[in-house]
Design a protein that fits this description.
This protein is α+β, with helices and mostly antiparallel strands. It is built from eight helices and four strands; from the N terminus they run ββααββαααααα. It has one domain.
Length: about 190
């Protein structure tokens, strides 16, 4: 008895070239737990809502003509708190990039890419060295396109994060570029 159909790929462009992206098997998605903590932290800080970002005060009263009048006032947060929130968001993004640059996490990400984009490889990477070579070949521009393709192919799984991450690509691209630039400037030991 056949319980599931063969997964159908979705087409998505990576730097202008169309690729097939397959839905990831559940066994592969469970390996995301290695990167889930830094991802959750960055999404919570960058796209979350802070209870102290401002205060809204509503006041209702009757006018002389007997009509209900409602006045809303929004009190902004202090500049110090705004600066603190900005620093927290930057630290979360830096932590995410540092985490993704960690060899173990980087290999999990490479495995996800190889599994989803299986048609793009003559021989699908399977060893740590092959995963490292794959990650070395990916530019920041292509990384953003690849992550979008993986999310598109696994839309139901990533749906809760998709709306919140809509504006993330530019911010993450900037952080990746700055971190990768810093890594390139450091002498090899």
């Amino acid at each position: 008895m056949r319980l599931f159909t063969s997964p159908q790929p979705v087409r998505h462009a990576v730097c202008g070239e169309e690729h097939n992206f397959y839905p990831l098997p559940l066994s592969t998605l469970t390996k995301l737990r290695v990167v889930a903590k830094p991802l959750a932290k960055v999404f919570a800080l960058i796209f979350g809502t802070d209870s102290d970002v401002g205060k809204r005060v509503d006041d209702s009263s009757n006018t002389k003509e007997g009509k209900m009048q409602r006045i809303s006032t929004i009190e902004a947060i202090t500049p110090a708190l705004a600066e603190k929130r900005s620093a927290e968001r930057q630290a979360a993004a830096d932590g995410l990039v540092d985490g993704l640059l960690n060899p173990e996490i980087s290999r999990v990400v490479a495995m996800l890419i190889a599994e989803s984009m299986r048609d793009s490889f003559e021989k699908k990477p399977s060893t740590p060295a092959e995963y490292d070579a794959l990650m070395d070949a990916i530019t920041t521009d292509s990384a953003i396109d690849i992550f979008k393709g993986i999310v598109k192919a696994n839309e139901k799984f990533f749906a809760p994060l998709k709306g919140r991450a809509a504006g993330a690509s530019a911010a993450l691209k900037s952080v990746f570029a700055s971190k990768l630039g810093q890594q390139a400037e450091q002498p090899k030991e």
